[in-house]
Design goal:
137 residues, mainly beta, eight-stranded antiparallel barrel, 8 strands, 49% strand
Length: 137
């Protein structure tokens, strides 16, 4: 009887006591971003140029961080073909600064969630951009 109780206690501890490391927040660093691929949705919100006051546009995206300073984003705009844009990036705390090769200025993103399998980041300005990404590789 005691052996069964001990076995059940150990079994319960194994099944319910272990927290999934995949959902645990991890530090935002260049090293943890390097050589990762993420896919998901980019959501853009603008309060200009609409009758209702808010315009929301969503598109599928793929973001790949080649190294600790370079990457590429592939946006699958439904109006045109997929657009690939390379970028350089740096990280300061939870601020991810991206400089797209096609742009003259950098864009700052606040990393709001970063786990082994999920990345969410947002850029707030005239147009708000929020990326909801899941790790692909």
């Amino acid at each position: 009887m005691k052996l069964r109780l001990l076995f059940l206690t150990i079994l319960c501890a194994l099944l319910f006591g272990c927290k999934d490391d995949e959902d645990k927040e991890i530090p935002v660093t260049k090293d943890t971003f390097a050589q990762t691929v993420w896919e998901g949705t980019a959501e853009y919100t603008s309060s200009r140029g609409t009758k209702k006051g808010v315009d929301i546009y969503r598109e599928p995206v793929l973001v790949e961080f080649y190294s600790s300073s370079k990457g590429i984003v592939v946006a699958e705009n439904t109006d045109t073909e997929a657009v690939e844009t390379e970028f350089t990036y740096s990280i300061d705390g939870k601020i991810l600064t991206i400089k797209f090769y096609t742009a003259t200025q950098s864009e700052k993103f606040l990393v709001t969630k970063y786990t082994k399998k999920e990345l969410q980041m947002a850029s707030y300005g005239e147009v708000t951009a929020i990326y909801y990404l899941h790790r692909k590789h």
